[in-house]
Structure formats: C-alpha cells, structure tokens
Amino acid sequence: MSIKEIHVCDGCGRELKENKEIYHLVLKTNRYNDSIEMTYDLEQLEFCLNCAREIKQTLERIAEKLDGGEGDHS
C-alpha cells in the first residue's frame, strides 16, 4: 500500500496539484525558552494564487493604516 500526499489551500481548501501553484507563508510564533536556547513555533501555510493575493492586499492595507497612509509597500 502507498500513501499519497496532497496539498490543499489553507484559505479556501482547493487542492493544489502542482508545486508552481503553491504560495507559502511561514509564521514564527510563540517565542519561548526551551531550557537550552530561545526558540519558536513555526506555522507553515500554503495558499492558492487567489488567496495569496487577498492576503497580500490585506497586509498592505494594515501596513498603510499603521503608517498613516505614508509610503509605498510594493
């Protein structure tokens, strides 16, 4: 028996069939000391083109609000 791994968009749930369709977003979260060194958790997300564009636009709007509308974040 074999196992088949599939990738789905974390935004809309659409199956991503080819590597070129996958847009990655890696977030570092929950920084903590594990008794040896400071470390963090990683959240690795995968998105289709449409969801990736929506995320980019949302992040640009947030950046504009934080900057007071100044500057270009392209």
Task: Please render the helix and strand layout as text.
Layout: E1 7-8, E2 15-16, E3 23-33, E4 38-47, H1 49-67
Antiparallel strand pairs: 1-2, 3-4
Describe, in plain words, how this protein is organized in 3D:
- The chain is an alpha+beta fold.
- It has one domain.
- It has one helix at 49-67, and strands at 7-8, 15-16, 23-33, 38-47.
- Strands 1-2 form a two-stranded antiparallel sheet.
- The chain is flat.
- The termini are far apart.
DSSP strand content: 25-35%
Average pLDDT across residues?
A: 89
Radius of gyration: 17 Å
> What is the first-to-last residue Cα distance?
48 Å
Brief sketch in words of this structure:
The chain has 74 residues and is α+β, with helices and mostly antiparallel strands. It has one helix at residues 49-67; strands at residues 7-8, 15-16, 23-33, 38-47. It has one domain (7-67).
Q: Which properties best describe this structure?
A:
1 helix; alpha+beta; flat; two-stranded antiparallel sheet; 4 strands; 74 residues
